[in-house]
């Protein structure tokens, strides 16, 4: 690994078992990395595996196979105190600010717990640190907000508390799982600007999970497009938006409001097959440019030009991956 990689997942697979039903593979041999002070947006429709990947990267899910690196440390199988130390360095901002905060506890309680548990602060030290966190996320006067309960806050204020809680352990890496999707349009820009500002101040690395290519382009340095538990395209944010290569990325762009992109015809609109027995490209059943080999072989993610990779036989005839 090079020094500027903060998190790297190599061939990560996450499988969920179900009684009397086939297993679901929610992430299938995914390789993804985030560098220092870099924001990588993971984009795709609901059910593509984005949230699963985000939770796997902060070790909230068990990894079935593959390797997860944090800087120069293999954190794939760490447990106990080692896992707790990793959790202080890798945090998650949940999508729903209404459901991620306990309605029976104050803002101060929500922030004190990680300050004491992850940073080892005393109760008195944590009380002082709470005020600093609230100021950093723009909740002032801090002495007023620390005693409020979640129901006394607006949606935007709750999300600021959730962001402050993620920062309590002084992480280097933060997964932001659709942090603005539950907010009014008028508040979304404020939260994105806050995340950008905090990244600069704290030298944070982000995995920004979203289905919105517009916000991904605004916040991210690179965009990874996910479909059917696999990465189908990855490039600089402007490259993905201006010159998308994969048919799914072009469909996703056409669905974005104000993109001006021309919609491509789909052969069907069914959800992708996430079964362990799936063969071929995940997008093949919906792809308007599908070829026979797409139904039996899964293309690897390879560079079609420097810094722009896609998993599609339209652009390369190289190796395929059998699922």
Structure description:
- The protein is an alpha/beta fold and 323 residues long.
- The protein has a single domain, classed as Rossmann fold (3-Layer(aba) Sandwich), CATH 3.40.50.300.
- The protein is 31% helix and 25% strand.
- The protein contains 10 helices and 14 strands.
- An 8-stranded mixed beta sheet has the order 6-7-8-3-9-10-13-12, sandwiched between helices.
- It is globular.
- The two termini are 27 Å apart.
- The relative contact order is 0.14.
- The model has no long low-confidence stretch (mean pLDDT 90).
Quick summary of this structure?
31% of the residues lie in helices and 25% in strands. With 323 residues, it is an alpha/beta fold. It has one domain (5-321): Rossmann fold (3-Layer(aba) Sandwich).
Helix and strand arrangement:
Blueprint: E1 5-18, E2 21-35, E3 39-43, H1 50-57, E4 65-70, E5 73-74, H2 80-89, E6 90-93, H3 107-118, H4 123-136, H5 142-145, H6 155-167, E7 173-177, H7 185-202, E8 205-210, H8 213-219, E9 222-227, E10 230-236, H9 237-242, H10 247-254, E11 298-299, E12 302-305, E13 308-310, E14 320-321
Parallel strand pairs: 3-8, 3-9, 6-7, 7-8
Antiparallel strand pairs: 1-2, 1-4, 4-5, 9-10, 10-13, 11-14, 12-13
Helix pairs in contact: 3-4, 3-6, 6-7
